[in-house]
Task: structure prediction
Amino acid sequence: MPRLCRLGCAALVAASALIAGEARAQEVAAPVIIIVDVQQILRDSLVAKNIQSQMNDRTDRYTKEVSSQENELRHTQDELERQRTVLSTDAFNAKMRDFQQRYDALDHGVQATRQALQQAYNDAMTRVENTALQIISDIATERKANLVVTKAAVLFEAPGLDITQDVIKRLDDKLPSVPLAVAQEPSLATPGAPAPAAPPGKN
Result:
């Protein structure tokens, strides 16, 4: 084989190898992107709405309960003010201690209920989020996606990249509801309930 041919063939083989290598590198590096709006999923899915509805129901129930006990305490407070001049100091102080204990119990109940319900809500939504993330992972595998981008970070998107509605549909089918499991069922108040009236002399 003439030397020129040998050099030309070697160069062609080298160039072909280089092109093939670049093509493989581009194939590996080329992103396959899907976009998802996690906040929309945690707002619009059936299970998210179910959890929020349970929270609203419990909030209404406990708010009514604590409001009733607040009214009773206000009535007791008014009675104590009227009796201040007719009761002995010891008798009045004893009634004031009883009133203070009831006031503190209600106040502590409000705080305990707020914490218990918030924890139950957080636990339920964590389960929803974990299930949604698994569904997103499944869809990414199906589409051979190697990059999942949150909707909030996207300025422009081509049609077909947003999988949010698909995730919501699958989540609705897989997990339509989650019970709001409060570790210890509160007997008083709920988040957003008004604080009890301050007892006489307490700022």
